[in-house]
Amino acid sequence: MKQAVLRVCLALLCCWVLSSKSFASVPPMISYQGKLTDAEGRIVPDGIYLLTFRLYTQESGGDPIWTESQPVQVSGGLFSVLLGSASTSTNPIPDAAFKGETWLETQVNGTTLNPRVRIVSVGYAFLAKTAETVPDASITAPKLAPGAVGPEAIQEKAVGKTHLANNAVTAEKIADSSITTTHIRDGQVMSSDLGAYAVTNAKIASGAVSWDKLAPDAKLMINVKAYGARGDGVTDDTTAFQNALNAASQAGGGVVWVPAGTYKIAGHLTIPTGVTLEGVFRAPPGRNYSGAYATTLLAYEGANNEGGTPFITLAEHSTLKGICILYPDQSMNAPIPYPWCIRGIGDDCSIIDVLLYNPWNGVDFGTYPCGRHYIRGLYGQPLNLGIYVDQCYDVGRIQDVHLWPFWTQGLISYTQQNATAFKFGRTDWEYVTNTFVLGYKIGYHFVQTAKGNCNGTFLSIGSDCSDIAVRVDSAAPFGLLITNGQFVANATATSVGLYVGPDGGYVSLVNCSFWGASNRIATVEGGSVKFDACNFMEWDKNNTGEYAIDASGGRLTVQGCTFVDTNKNKVRVRTGVTAAIIVGNQGMANSDVSNAIGTKCSVANNQR
Fold first, then answer.
1. Contact at 8 Å (CB) between 215 and 249?
2. What 3-state DSSP class applies to 412?
3. Bridge-partner residues for 250, per DSSP?
4. Contact in structure between 468 and 447 (CB atoms under 8 Å)
5. What sign has the CA pseudo-torsion 98, 102, 108, 112?
6. Out of 21-30, 292-301, 363-372, 423-432, least confident range
7. What are the respective helix, strand and coil percentages of the chain, to the nearest 5?
8. Are the CB atoms for 69 and 85 separated by under 8 Å?
9. Of 284, 313, 285, whose CA–CA distance to 299 is shortest?
């Protein structure tokens, strides 16, 4: 084909709208039409021609600032194209093309046409020049008609933080309800953007902050009052609490926060898996009762129904923390049975910094398997049974527990005759540390259940004013290791610091002290019992000739101990004892041992 001639019919351009930063509603393209003829002016045959377009900033020479090729349909010599349509996103027409003079060069099937054509504006495009001549700060609020700049007049993302002067948008300039969640992009309002106390409760509409609007890492705490809890001690808050707990569970877990207040719970509560019910305390309050205070739950359900539904049920991996529980209808004269206050069902149940003023039974971690349970900072005055552990098949932990008359001194006589502080059945590797009980018939009771018995480490434990400080009816062959214990019994005819029954099992006491108004220090009827570096004093208060340690069965070892009261009877080994070793003790002579088994009892190096 001979040299073709391109005649430009029309080129439209509005420079600022062609920028890669331009608004999406304005197409970043140029409409361009032409007519192809040969050198003699004859129209070229119809067909598809490959046209390449280049933009230059000079009439001749130089390098193009933009290039694009398109296959173009030519009919009757005429064609029409949109420059920039072939590669809008990957090769947009640059802003630089319209900062000064711009020239268009066209190539047809590899043949470059000359001369280049200059790109010019259409008439009304001259108005765009105005935008380049508006001085900064010339468009002020008084120059805008009321309502001229409304939400519908501003394109999305058009006004960013960098466009606004400091303090330009103040609260009084924003109409009520004009900025809703639909106007705010995700992640745009951060804590650093807000002044102190800028977002108050009064500024948040009811229901405006819902669970689904919170980021995953923000879903940490639900306030029970947001679910209708009143905390006035009169309104029944059971439903509000359970709804809040269920909401936390549905969100995958979290904390249900209970602000200071007195909350009436007429029914019972279940803390779901992975949820914590938490009040204000970071340590148990531990004071004599003078009325509910701080975060207190009032329990009412189940009077005279000991087998009823517990007040609080902990599902696996759940926690009760920082809360007081009070039974307002409990009697200070004749205690009323109630269902368990707290029951765990499943592994990893936790109780932290909790005060149980006056439950009938305190904590049940035994009716159902409750492995790896964790109790820390539990205070209270359970009136029948404090803490029950059974079916723990993997290392339970109990620490910093104080069972004492926090509610009333008037029931000490009752609990001394009827109540047990700790009761352990089957538990594998139980760790009990820094626990103290006062005024119970039995301080620490170890029993055989259908599931088995206990082995574990008991460090720095104490029992005061108890009829029997430690009672071992059964222990696992691995043994009970009791270290740094302090045990004080009462002055009753049956009182004793330690009682080990006929099937007692293996019990080792190291560096423990026994004193008080007890009848005797220890009664051993079976098992294998060892005292090492212990201290004994103040037994036989009635001066009836009781021995400090009286063994009638099993095996007994007493070594390196001190008997402070040197003028009283020390150790009696009866005929039922299998073997005994009494060596290296202070405050007693070898002759102070009453030995009924002959050579099966080794007595040596005891010094009075």
1. no
2. helix
3. none
4. no
5. negative
6. 21-30
7. 15, 40, 50
8. no
9. 313
What kind and span of H or E run contains 107? strand 103-108
3 state SS of 152: helix
Biggest distance spanned by C-alpha atoms of the chain: 144
> In which region does residue 252 sit, left (phi positive, over 0), alpha (psi from -120 to 50) or beta (all else)?
left
- Residue pair 450/416 in contact by the 8 Å Cβ criterion: no
Can you tell me the distance from the alpha carbon of 30 to that of 125, in angstroms, rounded to the nearest whole number?
13
Token readout for 190 is 């951060």
CB atoms under 10 Å from CB of 391, counted, come to 19
Is 91 within 8 Å of 100 (Cβ atoms)?
A: no
Residue 442's DSSP bridge partners are: 420, 468
CA distance linking residue 428 with residue 454, whole number of Å:
6
Q: What is the dihedral of CA 294, 434, 415, 545, to 10 degrees?
A: -160
Instruction: Provide the token pair at 340.
Output: 């368990």
Q: What would the two tokens of residue 51 be?
A: 């046209």
- Residue 523: strand, helix, or coil: strand
Residue range 329-383, pLDDT digits in tens: 999 999 999 999 999 999 999 999 999 999 999 999 999 999 999 999 999 999 9
Q: Are 330 and 336 in contact (CB under 8 A)?
A: yes
User: Token pair for residue 550?
Assistant: 């009286």
Pairing label, strands 5-11, 30-37: antiparallel
For residues 277 and 254, is the Cβ–Cβ distance under 8 A?
no
**DSSP class of 591:** G
Task: Give, for 486, the enclosing helix (H) or strand (E).
Answer: strand 486-489
Three-class SS of 330-356:
CCCCCCCCCCCCEEEECCCCEEEEEEE
- The answer to whether 403 touches 440, Cβ cutoff 8 Å, is yes
Q: Which two tokens stand for residue 456?
A: 């574990």
Closest to 237 measured CA to CA, from 259, 197, 266? 266
List, in sequence order, every residue forming a beta bridge with 457; answer none if it has no partner.
Answer: 431, 481
Q: Tokens 């071992």: give the residue.
A: 472
Residue at token pair 């069972």: 403
H or E segment to which residue 521 belongs? strand 520-524
Closest C-alpha to 12, from 80, 73, 65: 80
Count of C-beta atoms within a 10 Å radius of residue 378: 25
User: CA triplet 9, 17, 148: central angle to 5 degrees?
Assistant: 125
| pTM for the predicted model, two decimal places | 0.68
Quote the DSSP letter at residue 369: -
CA 172/CA 176 separation, integer angstroms? 9
Determine contact, residues 396/418, Cβ cutoff 8 Å.
Answer: no
The DSSP secondary structure of 183-249, one letter per residue, reads: GS-TT-S-GGGS-TT-S-GGGS-TTSS-GGGS-GGGTTEEEGGGGT---EEEEE-HHHHHHHHHHHH
Give the three-class secondary structure for 513. strand
Question: Is residue 458 within 8 Å of residue 485, measured between CB atoms?
Answer: yes
Q: Retrieve residue 530's tokens.
A: 């060892």
Alpha carbons 399 and 43: distance in angstroms, whole number: 100
pLDDT tens-place string over residues 281-335: 988 877 666 677 789 999 999 999 999 999 999 999 999 999 999 999 999 999 9
